[in-house]
Amino acid sequence: MHCPFCRNPDSRVVDSRTSEDGSSIRRRRQCPACQRRFSTSETASLSVVKRSGVTETFSRDKIVGGVRKACQGRPVDEDDLALLAQQVEEAIRSAGTAEIDAGDVGLAILGPLRDLDEVAYLRFASVYRGFESLDDFEAAIRSLREDHAEQADADSSTQ
């Protein structure tokens, strides 16, 4: 790590702290040449491989932007979207790979979005999965209804 003041190619770590969400480490460093201190932030990189083969850095903002369109006009606020993006990132990082296909990111979005808002889920799924007919929508709605019936059965058996 080069010193930002004197460009010395060496520095000594004085203190390390994990960020609140645990996604990065803040390090306090000191230059042995000029004795000045500076801070660095380290994060584990996660790359998304697009269908075209282009690789870009994972971004929660892109998740929020894509899901926001599906949630337009729905009772979903920015905090809900931020939490969804965090859940998606945690699911992706738990796979333990440094690169992930864009398609897998979309799959990781579907579950939390389905729990958040079913109408937004149908909107997102229709684009992501390329619904081409009413039959595709009906199949997705049937699946949601079956899940509701299973949940109702499970709730009634625990009471």
Automatic annotation (TrEMBL):
GO molecular function per UniProt:
ATP binding; DNA binding; zinc ion binding
Task: Report keywords, A-Z.
Answer: ATP-binding, DNA-binding, Metal-binding, Nucleotide-binding, Repressor, Transcription, Transcription regulation, Zinc, Zinc-finger
State where the unnamed zinc fingers lie: 3-34
The segment(s) forming the ATP-cone domain are 46-136
Q: Which Pfam families match?
A: ATP-cone, Zn_ribbon_NrdR
- List required co-factors: Zn(2+)
Region listing for Disordered, in residue ranges: 1-28
Q: Where is the composition biased (Basic and acidic residues)?
A: 9-24
| Textual note on the cofactor | Binds 1 zinc ion.
The record's section on PANTHER family has: TRANSCRIPTIONAL REPRESSOR NRDR
NCBIfam families reported for this sequence: transcriptional regulator NrdR (TIGR00244)
Q: What does this protein do?
A: Negatively regulates transcription of bacterial ribonucleotide reductase nrd genes and operons by binding to NrdR-boxes.
Designated name of the protein? Transcriptional repressor NrdR
Q: Which organism is it from?
A: Paraoerskovia marina
Taxonomic lineage is: Bacteria, Bacillati, Actinomycetota, Actinomycetes, Micrococcales
Q: Which gene encodes it?
A: nrdR
